Each structure stands twice: as C-alpha cells, then as structure tokens.
Amino acid sequence: MALIENAPKITGGGPALEAPRSKRSPRSTKTNFELYAWLFMRLSGILLVVLVIGHLIIQLIIDGGVTRIGFAFVAGRWANPFWMTWDLVMLWLAELHGVNGLRTIINDYAERDQTRFWLKVLLYTSALIVLFTGTLVIFTFDPNIGQ
Ligand code: HEM
C-alpha cells in the first residue's frame, strides 16, 4: 500500500506543451495526407543523401573538380539520359522535400490564417516556377542552339 502511495504521479508530470496552432481541418481526418507527407520526408531524405553527395563529389572533387565545369561540361553530361534523369530526380525531390518542410514550418509558426494562406501561396507559386523552368531546361537544353 505504501509503495502505491509513494509512486510518482503519471498525469501532469511531463513537460508543458503548447497546443498546436494549426487547426485540425476536417479534410485531414479523412485522408492520410500527413502520414504520406511524413513518410515522403524520410524516403526523399535517404535518396537525397545519395543524389546530393554523388552530385557534389562529381562536380567539385573528382577529375579537376569545379575548374572543369563550364558550358561544354554541362552539354556533355546532358547528352546522357542517365545524368538527365539524375538531375531531374534530384530537382524534383529537393524541391518537393523543401516545400513540404516549409509547409510544416508555416503551419507551426504562422499564427494568423491569412498569413498562413499567403505564405503558402508564395511557397507553391515559387515551387511551380522552379519545377517548370528546371524541368524545361533539362529536357530542352541544346548545346548547338544559335549555331
Ligand atoms: C541531403 C539529404 C537530406 C536529408 C537526409 C533530409 C532529411 C529530412 C528529414 C528526415 C526531415 C523531417 C524532419 C522532421 O519531420 O522533424 C527534413 C525536414 C526538412 N528538410 Fe530535409 N533532408 C535532406 C535534404 C534537404 C534539402 C536539399 C532541403 C532543401 C531543399 C531540405 C529542407 C528541409 C526542410 C525545410 C525541412 C523541414 C524542417 C522542419 O520541419 O523543421 N532538406 N529533412
């Protein structure tokens, strides 16, 4: 009996946490979007380690490093579908990973609904521009243009 009386209280003993600012929208209870977004951050993170570190080693270290990078170097690499795919996947994963991370930060820190809304409009618009122009350049790059 004495043991039970002296036991630490479980309820209310933990650190005080602030209530989340982002409201639980009715939509988020119907879909598993946040679960998939959480999973996507982990999986894209793992892939990005390989893609980004590989990219840095190739561009900056091996075979003369950054000094050999120029128009001819890019033209040579984007003549090869393997490097086009590498750069395309890296572009899309980094952009979507970064956008989703910033979406979380906006949800956590923007206090007013209007602020949150406009920050997200800005974020998604910038992402569309980056993804569109980046993808366009990778697919339409032509080293002989204007010759
Ligand atoms: C290189 C490999 C990378 C790995 C392994 C990685 C991993 C992760 C993981 C696991 C999270 C989730 C953290 C959480 O939910 O608490 C995260 C969040 C985030 N990542 Fe990455 N990431 C990488 C690259 C990038 C890149 C290239 C960008 C920018 C384009 C980026 C921007 C972000 C942002 C903005 C967040 C949200 C941070 C937050 O919630 O406080 N990450 N990252």
Automatic annotation (TrEMBL):
Disordered: annotated segments: 1-27
Predominant subcellular localization, coarse grouping: membrane
One Gene Ontology term of the molecular function aspect: metal ion binding
Localization per record: Membrane
GO cellular component: membrane
Transmembrane annotation, as ranges: 35-62, 82-100, 121-141
Designated name of the protein: Succinate dehydrogenase hydrophobic membrane anchor subunit
